[in-house]
Amino acid sequence: MKINVTDNLLSQNGLVALPSIVILSLIMLTIGIAMSFSSFTQNTISFNSEITQRSYFVAESGIKDAMMKITRNKNYNIDYALQINADEAIVTFDTSIPNQTKVTSTSTINNHTKKIEATLDVTSSGKVTILSWHELSI
To answer: Does pTM top 0.70 for this prediction?
Structure first.
């Protein structure tokens, strides 16, 4: 019986290539999953940042709208909800200090709440001056 050495070597090369291909495929799959997870995490962070900013600007709009109402009517102090597209700012007034109005605006979007408070000096002539403006921690 004649043994062909060349055929034997070629068949063994195929056996070595199969595990190598499987290992390389697993490495590539792991890298792909890691990249997908990283991309998902970045998208989530970006979305949360955008929602937080939107909530802040809606609350800020509530303060500015209240200032406009007080400028038009220096005795304005009726709490209200300001609708901005699908978002809302709850605006409240505190007039317990004479010639001052404390306006608080709160906006919550997807569990991201921002609250801004402004203290305004309101003169008898109706001139409105901002004494303080800051974001409150929630």
So the answer is: yes
